[in-house]
Structure of Nitroreductase:
Amino acid sequence: MTNLFDLQQQRRSIYALGQNIDLTEAEVSELIFKTIKETPSAFNGQGSRAVILFGEANNTLWNDITASALKPLTPAEYFPNTQAKLASFAGGVGTILFFEDQDIIKGFQENVPLYAENFPVWAEQSNGMAQYATWMALAEQNIGANLQHYNPVNDEAVAAKWNIPSNWKLRAQMPFGSIENPADAKEYATVEDRFTTYNK
């Protein structure tokens, strides 16, 4: 079994995605559900939500909904590049939509007012952990992924298309699929720039 450090190194942003993975849709769904289920959250609120789009639904998200939302916002000369990027996401097996349940946050704010201003921050941290854990779980299965943030430009259309509850707020999108081209070498900041330790 791959250890955590090796898995962290293996997880990369993969943009050349294909449909040649070994897992079935049901197996991918179970993997994602189990991973998010075990992700920690403040006060055990468990507010992270996920919707997985496969096949034609994945194509609709990128080549229809998101492309239509971005076209009026993008200079005409740049839109072909935008379309190509969206098509690369659609070319994978699917996309995970990560949401955060706002009713969970509001409930804690009402019941624990001392920390009211912190609950939205903690919810974002938990959702980020769910995204990262899911990304590593996919990487362990040799499934490539990248993380996108086209919300809020496509929020309304996504909610309408897939009957998303109004209290779910879209936080990120994670296209995934087979690794058709590996990521480039990664550069790292120095240890001295990023870490400090003290013992007294």
